[in-house]
Amino acid sequence: MLGVAALIVVLSVMNGFTKEVRDRMLSVLSHVELSSYTGSLGDWRQVAERARQNSEVVAAAPYVNAQAMLTRDDVVRGALIRGIDPALEPGVSDIARNLPSGRITDLVDGEFGIVLGLELGRALGVSIGDKVTMLAPQGNVTPAGVIPRLKQFRVVALFESGHFEFDSTLALVHISDAQRMFRVEGPTGVRLRLKDALQAPLVAADLARGLDPNVLVRDWSRQNRTYFAAVKTEKRMMFIILTLIVAVAAFNLVSTLVMTVTEKQSDIAILRTLGASPSSVMAVFIVQGALIGVIGTFGGVGLGLALAHNLDVIVPAIERVFGVQFLPKDIYFLNSLPSDPRWGDILPIGIISLVLSLIATLYPSWRASRTRPAEALRYD
Predict the structure, then answer these.
(1) Contact yes or no for 293/354 (Cβ under 8 A)
(2) Dist CA 354 CA 301 (whole Å)
(3) 119: phi then psi, degrees, rounded to nearest 5
(4) Mean predicted confidence (pLDDT) in 341-357
(5) CB atoms within 10 A of CB 211
(6) For residues 108 and 30, which has the higher predicted lDDT (pLDDT)?
(7) Which among 6, 129, 197, 364 is most buried, taking Cβ atoms within 10 Å?
(8) pLDDT in the model for residue 334
(9) End-to-end alpha-carbon separation of the chain, Å?
(10) Residue 27 — φ and ψ, nearest 5°?
(11) Given a cut of 70, is residue 335 above it in pLDDT?
């Protein structure tokens, strides 16, 4: 029961972790990105229009991606700068709905406003209305040498995606301001939102066949392929390792039945003398062992589901009692323990447990059926 419950809880947590990270990533990342190998996508409207012909595409928006340094007083932070169109951005991301303060529409062309991730804003020590200085990597060439290009931006909003990596590194500006700051002729690409994010690899492959060869098509799963592949491999290994707990329990079932057979030698011998066949004796112990396996398996499934569905209450309670935090958000992507129990995992766990329990009963039951009445009753 404990082995099955532990396996269900661990796999549910891994499922929940993967789903939560994916959802939080997709609240900031685009489902599909179309960019140019040359650095800027001059005919982005035509590219977006061709992409919208795919029935899965529901929205498109241009963007400019660049890296820069943000400074305020003595604090310096590296940041990923994304130039966006405030009117189109809500269609391709959820950032506009994750603003604790301010509005994304406060980004106005020519006013050099900036929207910071909440953790990035805290690191810089700024709030709405404060100014930060942006240093672009492209400098101005003067007779005195190359001078870094600087520009002050006013903080108009702070966003919180719940994903520490983005909240601590991402900053949004108006796309026109980004083009002027980083001296690009047009958007560096187009971001697409799909009806179903899980269809992104298929949609990306279809768009790659229909668009110009100079357009680079990337979907979110390809951009984060290494991470999700690692999680998938880890989940598979955890399944194998924790299944050994169930196997050990099945081995204990063997020892339990062997001891029962040894203890019941006289009773088995009496049954044999009364006419019980070896197969009927074997069936008795198979039923006993299988019943233990069934009770343990179903008890474990019930306990595992109860724990998995209530982890959001159990874990915070343990953290409060012992004064610890299991998932510091500055180390992990999340600061809470998610859970997503799936029947696709639970059914194989239950079947494997029942099969192991049944296999474990065969040897003790066979040994019981081979009991010889004369030898068993010799000293009784």
Answers:
(1) yes
(2) 12
(3) -70, -35
(4) 90
(5) 16
(6) 108
(7) 364
(8) 63
(9) 38
(10) -75, -15
(11) no
